[in-house]
């Protein structure tokens, strides 16, 4: 059953359901960390091509942060999750005197469930021009950070991956951080989950805006992607309904295959979700890149 | 089969499919007008309680404007549809020297598929303060127009109907025009259809923000509602899928009944749709209310 | 010299400059509090009509919070100022089980220097509908809060004061909190100062949108106004220039008096200012009204 | 007297006031065209280095479109001005089967008087991806159009000129159209004037965001700039005031020179201005680039 999801943790759950994974240790390493306060982190590493095939995702690290109560603004929960984001991100990006980073907020700011990237990008502390101004080659307290909102192909006419690559030529970063909306299988994931990965953005992820991947292979440098599920594919809720009511899996899959509507399913409080999660991710990034300013 | 739709024309289509309507003339009058240029208008009048029960909609007039090619920006199509909106609206609101109108743009401006109302309202030519300033009791070229964006209960804490009623007490209009996003059954309707009705807004229409109706009964004066389908209920696409694959209608309806996710289905180019349709409706209203300025 | 300012502290400074105030204790009481971390609070009380005439402001309390480094995002400064806002606000609004508050975000969200009110309002935790839903008469942890963005007369056609009064009839609050952009005399004030007052909003304050005051007299209940200077009157920078270059004050004042351009002066980083100060004020209000949730 | 202005027509007016221009024909050619309906077009050509020095602007063509009544939405005025924009633009950009254009909307969308560029860009019909999709090498009805909103250095950390140049490498356009807010000397110009020039954007124009020029020299291809004055420099209104009141020009200039506030002066209805002028310019561009669609 080929549910669409951009989350490694959901792909892993599907494998477990299917019982397709006889040997857990072959190609996939998984570790859970309890941060307390209803915050859990699951680190999944896909270590070889067998893991890739099983997980239908490229080799690399996938960190899933799960937290309850963010939209309800439970006491201090946003502060706590920000700190976890920073802590996990620091494992992938080590701050040093010369650290130079390009942040790219993907998606269409005019379509609410696709606005996570631009909304987060607008809250990033950008410093590249200050380094230029003061002719500084580095700093002990903050990184050299540039930021771009490349828009979507429907409004730019261009491939997002190509715009980022060209921008990257300008500022020559050591690492690119891309932020994007993701698609989940399970509606419960929307508003509780953040995924951080060093494998970048896969083609067709999220709202399906990008045809080309944004990763180390296409960019030529390390790409860290941070995403939050904001949409569910229409075929996901249809498949769920069919499976519960029809015995023939083949019949279900045939119907899904022929289903060709370009539609997205999202929650009605998506505006709050985008606001809260862009705050959390931007603050997590700011703490990671500018440890002397945001402590 | 109880598909959710805010469009009278779709309810009528479902009746026809079901063959439930033995006598067309009883309670429902329907008339099609061809405006040329791929623009069709269907006027449906529900004339008595039998029609109400059949159509599951209150008695009154429902005008459906259907046009092809709006998102593709076919040559001059927006101008043409604007004129049809004005022409049909003029049947319901007659301009005169003392005409005093309150326009209310319903919905959440921060959630794209719900932003039709606020987006349209922001393009309305507002004049009430000018009449106050010049102490004019009326005008031959323009109406006295006030405008409000009442927001949604989740962000105001209040019922939208009550905010509009209170505002209406301030400016004492002869008629209220409310603009809102609607829910359709058929995805094809999204981006091709405008509905104008003198029955106002039903409770739970569109994104389901409002619990109370906004109509002549609750407001005490005539209420014209203008809407565009921007969302499909999640249960609609599920029901469609189940019906095609399961024989037992009862089983389908039972599944739907128990389905309790608060989700909306919309198209990925919803930003363009909101922009184009708010232009069209605002211009149609401006032409109707200010015939001496917008000709 | 009649500089335009909405800040009591600037009016007091002008009095001191002019030496017009022979007896400090008559009608005006002033007290400075050092909160540390470069945060100063000045509490001014105008106690009688003599103070009113001197200060050209109505009797009541004016609390000025001054802080350095907010736009530069100095470490933790926003958190600290939020706490001071909450602490001072709690002196004016005492939380209790039945506390019922209407928050009104004044100004035009589409004009950046006027967007403080709507921007803050969008970050307020609104609860009135939850109290309705659960039929609660009060709560130990949170207040009953409603929220409105009444817009500006140019886009609504109505007086803002009247919209707020009508809305207030709906929810019957104990106190109204209005947030608005203010005009300062001194450009340095922009981005460093917050004023809290129990005298409400004066006619013509800020961008000059409102002709009617929003205060206890017009609303019938207590009105707390929170403002941040975001604009300088064009005549202020002109007067400053003339005074430094011309001896005759009369000539200066005559020129200013005849100057009739409708213009505003603001800073080029006004977008950051609105973002940061709306965060601070919204969090300060949330802490005050919902002490069990935001601690 | 060195008033700041980005408008060639104002520079010419200042020359005329000063009487500095003994020989009109030397280096500057000017021609007025009356389009009727209160629309005037002035074409200024700076033909040699003497003209450059006199006008303090680079050699090239400057087309100024002046129209009354746009904000008042006088009957049909927007349609008429759109047509004039298209007509003048067609003199600079000839449509042909292979025409390939990059449109860049400069400025900060979050600061209203700086939002002309992004606001216009969002209304441009973008087609580059369609040409890619259908592997078309050209078209008889529409051009190949890409579009970018490069943001401002304060939020990207990068020079806008460099971002545009890199993007231009991607799509290899024949011409770049840049849209930007401009600074005028005379407040009357705000809301009545559009300037089109083939000399691009000068460093420090408009809100002063860009240090590098965006023109044929820096981009390597033809650059057409379209601008509308939305701000007045603070020193302009101060200088006006001082000159009227002080005899010594030297004293005035000394004061201005030492004035170092980063402030902008704009009108209070700037939101309407941005909306109307971005509509007009976008439609003018669409008519020019896609003659088969927008006639």
TrEMBL record, chains A, B, C, D:
What is the stated purpose of this protein?
Initiates the rapid degradation of small, acid-soluble proteins during spore germination.
Provide the family line: Belongs to the peptidase A25 family.
Question: Could you name the domain of life of the organism this protein comes from?
Answer: Bacteria
InterPro entries assigned to the protein according to its UniProt record, in alphabetical order: Pept_HybD-like_dom_sf, Peptidase_A25
Per the UniProt record, the lineage of the source organism begins with: Bacteria, Bacillati, Bacillota, Clostridia, Peptostreptococcales
Which transformation does this protein catalyse, written as a reaction? Endopeptidase action with P4 Glu or Asp, P1 preferably Glu > Asp, P1' hydrophobic and P2' Ala
The encoding gene is gpr
The UniProt entry, under NCBIfam families, shows: GPR (TIGR01441)
Per UniProt, the keywords (alphabetical) are: Hydrolase, Protease, Zymogen
User: What positions belong to the pro-peptide in this record?
Assistant: 1-6
Q: What is this protein called?
A: Germination protease
Gene source species: Lentihominibacter hominis
Q: How does it assemble?
A: Homotetramer.
> Top EC class per UniProt?
hydrolase
EC assignment: the record states 3.4.24.78
Q: Name one GO molecular function term.
A: metalloendopeptidase activity
Key word Protease present: yes
- A GO BP entry: spore germination
Any Pfam family matching the protein: Peptidase_A25
Presence of keyword Hydrolase? yes
**What does the UniProt record tell us about how this protein is modified after translation?**
Autoproteolytically processed. The inactive tetrameric zymogen termed p46 autoprocesses to a smaller form termed p41, which is active only during spore germination.
